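Hi V.,

You were right to ask for the full record rather than a summary. Here it is.
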Amino acid sequence: MTHDTTLIHAPDGGMPRLLEIMRALRDPDHGCPWDIAQSFESIAPYTIEEAYEVSDAIARHDWNGLRGELGDLLLQSVYHAQMAAEAGHFTFADVARDISDKMVARHPHVFGAESNAKTPAQQVNDWETIKASERANRAQTGVLDDVALALPALLRAVKLQKRAARVGFDWPDTSQVMDKIIEESQELIEARDTLTPAETFEEMGDLLFVMANLARHLDIDPEAALRAANAKFTRRFRAIETALAADNRAPQDSTLAEMDVLWNAAKAVEKAEKNARKESV
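Predicted structure:
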């Protein structure tokens, strides 16, 4: 198989250049052995990882980093499309055409005759109507049919709940969700004390699911909230390590009581810094 080496080395080659590079990498005679050996299944984890790295760059406002991460994510689409083309399933051009057709069809208020004088909430409702029609055309008639199984569990919980809520299966306010959290917490304690590990496992899942539901009712992204909590925990634990290192010690050389004091000190510093920022605004 021959490749357009001029295009491959052209700095302004754009998408045709990237597609040609991927074809060359997958060339069974002259390509990269690692790339040739890959499959949809082996590449899928990298695709998920790259999506998270895009999100991470955005959270850190690292715009130069975002540029690179978006390129990495784009490469994943190109990779899957190349493997699909080799197997005779579809091409990258098919992928681009399908998503373009979908965007045009889902935005008749932009690309069609409908008025664009809509609120975001109205547009969400219209979009769900269009998506329901698309599911019906694909013989997916269930409300939850196309909520992807491979989504992170927390994200999938919210998507399942949103989909059910759009057909009226939802609590009307947060007080009922809070009551359910109390109920599920009590059931988890009971399971821990009197039931089997499998039943305790199930109750923990129920509690996590209703916590995701509360986040949805509060219009909070639970995944983002948990990432922020992870970052906060990391900062404060590192503060503990730094304080102990100043005394030539490590956490394993300390006691829980000592580390609690250092944790609270780090928490107080963060709170003071946050208040100072508020006052300077």
